[in-house]
Amino acid sequence: MLKKVPIAVLCSGGGTNLQAILDAEAAGNIPSGRVALVVSDNANAFALERAKKAGVEIAVFDRKQVSDRKEREARILALLREKQIGLVILAGFMTILSENFTRAFENRIINVHPSLIPSFCGPGYYGLKVHEAALARGVKVTGATVHYVNEVCDGGPIILQKAVNVEEGDTPETLQKRVMREAEWKILPAAAELVCKKLLQG
Ligand code: GAR
């Protein structure tokens, strides 16, 4: 394949989902896209180390240094345009994007969420909080979802989902790890390829 969609991955933390994408790309499993840029709103995010190690360009718009959300978004948006990014992947990005941003990249932003949407999603449900809520409700099955991002938090069309069993004695931490390993790290790279392929086909 000659053409690849330039991808930007936005992260705030550890970046294990970013790593899954980088590994999938290196293994030839994302033939329709290439990670061109990693953006973080946290200067201390380990995701940045992962990007550097893979030789991917990084950009930091730290929440403490650029504290105005609008200003941060505007700067990220300008960079994405400058780099001619075709697909934005939210991989543990902890800022909710405004409608101005999502409209600018309509059908070109995807997010991974650590539950089976529509359960345990929306404002306030992120990271460990999602798994705490799943355990508190006593569900026996949870999982992860990759979806398009629009103006409704966690409300865009679903691309892929994968179920994961809750086990006796699970803590939010053990459940989070299992959901990542069995679901997120598989469906996020798969969805990235699906969407890039679709974008190339026009
Ligand atoms: C992941 O579990 C991701 O699904 C979640 O944050 C974690 C980031 O981990 N995202 C959300 O909760 C978004 N609502 P990572 O930095 O190791 O990829």
What's the arrangement of secondary structure elements?
Layout: E1 5-11, H1 16-26, E2 33-40, H2 46-53, E3 57-60, H3 69-82, E4 87-90, H4 99-104, E5 109-113, H5 128-137, E6 141-148, E7 158-165, H6 172-201
Parallel strand pairs: 1-2, 1-4, 2-3, 4-5
Antiparallel strand pairs: 5-6, 6-7
Bound molecules: glycinamide ribonucleotide.
Glycinamide ribonucleotide binds at residues 11, 13-17, 47, 91-92, 112-114, 126-127, 130, 180, 184.
Strand order of the largest sheet: 3-2-1-4-5-6-7
**Architecture in CATH?**
3-Layer(aba) Sandwich
CATH superfamily: Formyl transferase, N-terminal domain
User: Average pLDDT, to the nearest integer?
Assistant: 97
Span between N and C termini? 15 Å
Number of helices: 6
CA gyration radius, whole angstroms: 16 Å
H-E string: EHEHEHEHEHEEH
Oligomer: single chain
**Overall number of strands:** 7
Helix fraction by DSSP (H/I, runs of at least 4): 25-40%
Bound compounds: glycinamide ribonucleotide
Nutshell version of this structure?
The protein has helices at 16-26, 46-53, 69-82, 99-104, 128-137, 172-201, and strands at 5-11, 33-40, 57-60, 87-90, 109-113, 141-148, 158-165. It is of the alpha/beta class and 202 residues long. The radius of gyration is 16 Å and the shape is globular.
